[in-house]
Amino acid sequence: MLRSYWNELKKLKRQKTVRVVAFIGILLPAFCTILCVNNHYRFRNLVGMNVQFGSFLIAPFLFSVLLLTMFSLEEQNGTWKNILTIGISQSTIFLAKIMAAFTFVLLFSGINTVYTMAGGIVLRNYDPDFRKVFTIFLLASLAAAAGTMPVVWLIVLLRKKYLIAMIAANIFVMFNFILVWQLTMFRCLSLPLPILIAYRIIYPISILEYTDNLRAGLDTLYYPAGKGILILTLTAVSSILLGVWTGKRQEG
């Protein structure tokens, strides 16, 4: 498993697509930071903005695009069947690719934290706790990625048609983000979708400074954390299993 994981990272390192995606991942946190600094927002506003746009838009985008890139490389180079013939199971390959994609989500959380802390120095109510802010972004990004995991099945299903798969994956991620955006305005509360559950269980830990409005939001968006984690876990596991099954059917 570990060797397969390192191989996937090496493949990604050589791809121009990864550099472009990484640049986008760096650009957005910088934009949010500059926006908050220019408008003299409070530090909590910057953290909240980077949770919403960074963790629930860019992180799922990075995850899905990089995962699709890894699958498309196998199709373009015709190496998928060769890998299977040397004794590596399809499940191992799937998990290695997902772990590699999650690695970039982890790196993005670090970049997001650096920009947030740098911008926060000149904002009001700055909290210089790097570990706390990094934990918020990391948990939010992982929850968002878990809520986006059905995209794994979509990518596997369409992996032989790269452009269509890329469009479909990005539409899926953007649709999820629009739902989250609506949720922040207290809409879509009745929809039990994984991405919305992810935001609802992350929202309480993303608050650095409580106000009356935020307390009202906590009451409205409340979702049992244990139940939410269970649903996200089941979503991730079932998406991976469905992806593996679909891949085997395609090769069968």
UniProtKB/TrEMBL annotation:
The chain crosses the membrane at residues 20-41, 53-73, 93-115, 136-156, 162-181, 228-247. Keywords: Membrane, Transmembrane, Transmembrane helix. It comes from the Bacteria. Pfam families: ABC2_membrane_4. PANTHER family: INTEGRAL MEMBRANE PROTEIN-RELATED, MEMBRANE PROTEIN. This is ABC transporter permease. The lineage of its organism: Bacteria, Bacillati, Bacillota, Clostridia, Lachnospirales.
